[in-house]
Amino acid sequence: MSDDKTSPWPQWPVHPFALAQQATDYWIDACQRSVLFMDVLRQRGDERNHRDEQPAPHVLSFEFETILDGRHLERPVNYGLLYILPPDGIAPDPHKRPFIVFDPRAGHGPGIGGMKQDSEIGVVLKAGHPCYFVGFLPQPVPGQTIEDVCRAEAQFIARVAALHPHADGKPALIGNCQAGWQIMMTSALNPDLVGPLVLAGAPLSYWAGVRGKNPLRYLGGVLGGTWMTALAGDLGNGIFDGAQLVANFEKMNPSNTLWAKNYNVYSKIDTEAGRFLEFEKWWGNPVLLNAGEMQYIADSLFVGNRLSDAALIDSNGHRIDLRNIKSPIVVFCSWGDDITPPQQALGWVLDLYEDDAALAAGGQTIIYSMHQSIGHLGIFVSASVANKEHEEFTAAMDMIDIMPPGLYEAVFLDKDEEMLQAEIAAGDMAGGDFVMRFERRGLDALRALGGNDAEDERRFAAVARVSEINTGLYRTYASPVVKAMVTEASAEQQRESHPLRLRYRMFSSKNPLLDGIPAMAAKVRAERRPVAPDNVFMQMQETMSRQIVDALDRYRDLRDQATENIFLGVYGSPLLQALVGLRTDGGRPRRIGRDIAREAALNAHRAAAAMKTAEGGVTEAIIRGLLYIYRSPEMSAADERAFATIRQLRLRTSDDKELSVTHFKTILREQYLMLQVDEEAAMHDLPLLLPASAEARAAALAIVRQVAGATGTLTGDGAVRLERVVAAFEARAPKLAVAGKRGKA
C-alpha cells in the first residue's frame, strides 16, 4: 500500500478478502451500468429516428396552435407563428403586453425556449402575459433568404400586436442566440413595430473577444475565409447541413464531447438518464439551411462583422442600422458562455457609439446583465436562470420600456427583511424573491471587459478581405466543377453519413446487434446492485475519468493557443495586409457608416423638444421633476420599487384617463430630452405646467416625494435637486399657464 498522500489514486484495502469483495461488487455494477447505458443510447437513437420522421419536430413542453404559417406568405419561409396555450390554472391578462419567443436556427431544431415548464415561455405565462413562439421546420423553403425571414418576423409581430389591441405596450421580443441578432435586424428595419427586446446569448459583434479565450472567432481566418461554406453548400446541392454547425460547437470542448457527457450518464446511470435523454431530443436533430442563407451569415456576420458596422443594406436599399431601434434592448450574457462571450454580446454598442453622450443623444436604452458562470445553453434552459433573471426581466418589462436613454447594468438584489416588510406595508410593490436594480453605466464599463486593439481589428479586417478573394476564386473556378459533379442523391447520402447522425443511427433499434438490449436492461433494473461510492475500484474509475478529461482539456488548450498564434502571425503580416489594401487606409480598419437622414431627424427632434419646455400639465411636471432628480450623479441607480410606486399612484392624462405605459413612455422620453438639451430652461419653465391651486400642487409634490424616496432617503446632490423641485412646485403658477393642457394626478 502506498504512503504517498498526494497520489491521485485511492488507497487499497488491507485485507485481501475485502479487496476481492470490492472487485466483485464493482464488476457486477460496471456490467449492469454498461447494459443500462447501451439501453439509454438505444432510446436516444430511437427518439431521434422517430423525430426525423415527423414533419415539424420540436421540443416544446407546451401545447400550441398555429397562427401564421410562413410558407403561405408572399415571400414564403419555413418559419411559423404559434400561440402558446396556457396550462390549466393560468389565464393571461389581455391588458398585459404579449411576449414572442424566437428560437435559434443555428443547427438545431426549435423549442429550447420552452423545453421545460421553468423556461422563458413558462416564466411569461406564469406572469400572466399572452405568449407566442416563432419556430421553424427542418427543411428550408427553396430560395428563402435571411431578409425574407426578417420580413416574415415583422409580419408575425404585426399580427400579434393586432391580436392584442388593448394591451398596454407593444409586443416584447425574446431572441435566443442566432434569433437575437435576427430580431435586431428586423427591429432596425421596423423600429415602430416592436416593444422591448431581450437578447439571450446573442452575438452581434463577431470579432470581439480577448486573447487566450474565445477561439471560435479565429475559425474563419484559419480556414481562409468563407470559401469552405460555399463548398459545403455546393456539396449539399444548394443546402447547408446544420449538423456541421453542431459539430463546430462540439469541437470547442472535446473533453465533454468525447468523454465527459457520456461518462456522466454511465457513472450515474440511475439518476442522469432522464436528463440526458431530454437534452438529446433537442441536440440530436439538426436542421437544414439554404446555402445562400448560410453564406450570407458567414460573409456578412461571422467574418464580415457588418451588422455592428451599420454596413448591411437590404434589397430595397435600406441600411440595417441598429441605432434605428427605438425600443429598449436587454442583453443577457454570461462569463461562462464560450459561444457568445460578453464582448461579442455587447461589443456592438462600442462599435456604434463613440461616447456616452452619443448613446444618450441617439435615444437608445441598453440594459445588460452578465451571469458569472452559466454556460451558453444554460441561458435558455437552466431552471435557476429562468426563475431568476428571466422572471425578473419579464416582471420589470414595463419599467424597462420607460427607462430613459443610456446604458444600464441590471443587478439582482436578494430581498432583505426590511424590503419584505416594506412590501407587505405597500401591498407587494415588486414581488418575487429579488429586486431588480438598474445601475447607470458608461461605455468605459464595456471597454473594461477587454477586447481588440487596433492591430487586432486590422487582422480581422484582413480576414474579411482575404475571404472575399478566396470565395471569389472558388466561385469562379471551382464551384462550377463541384456543382456539375453533385446530385441530390449524393448530397443526401453525404448528410446521412455525417458522424452526428451516424452515432444516433448506430445506437438505435435499427442496429440488429442491439436487439437483445431492452430485455437485458429490464432484467438489470430488476436486479440492480449499485456499488458503494467508497469502493476502491469505483474511485479508480473516477480518477481515470478525471485524467482523461484533463488530457483532453490540455489538448484543447494547446490547439486553441496554436490557432490563435497562427491567426495573429498570418493576418498580422504587414505584407498580407498591404496586399489586401488595408495599409493604404491610413486609419481605423473599420468605419461606421453615417446615416445623414437619421442624424437630421434626431437634431430636428431635439430642437423641437427645446421649444416645448412650457407645454404640458401636472403629469408632465411630475415626470420632469423626477427625471431632474434622477439625473443627479449620485442617483446612479433605480429599481422596480420606484416604478411600482408610480404605477400604484395611477397617474392620469389630461383627459382624465389612466396613463398607459405607451403614453407614459412618450411623455418620459420628451421630458428627458428637454432636460438633456437645456436642463436650466426646462426647470425654469416647470412651474408653468402646474395648476394654480396650492392643494393640487401639494398633491403632485407628494407624488414626487413618494417616488423619489421609494428606495431610501435622498442625500447629497439628489437631496439638493429634490429641494429645487419642491421650490418649483410650491411656487404660485403664473397666469399664463394654459388650463387646457393640464392633467390630473
Between the first and last Cα atoms, what is the distance in angstroms?
A: 83 Å
Number of helices: 30
Q: How much of the residues is beta strand, in percent?
A: 5-15%
The major sheet is characterized as:
11 strands, mixed
How would you describe the shape?
globular
Per CATH, the architecture of the largest domain is: 3-Layer(aba) Sandwich
Q: Rg from C-alpha positions?
A: 29 Å
What spatial order of strands do you see in the largest sheet?
1-2-4-3-5-6-9-10-11-12-13
Count of DSSP strands: 13
Helix content: 40-55%
For CATH, the homologous superfamily of the largest domain is named as Alpha/Beta hydrolase fold, catalytic domain
CATH topology of the largest domain: Rossmann fold
* Tally of domains: 3
Average pLDDT metric: 88
Structural class: alpha/beta
Low-confidence stretches: 424-430, 735-745
Broad CATH class of the largest domain: Alpha Beta
Organism: Duganella vulcania
Pfam family, one: DUF3141
InterPro entries: AB_hydrolase_fold, DUF3141, PHA/PHB_synthase
Protein name: DUF3141 domain-containing protein
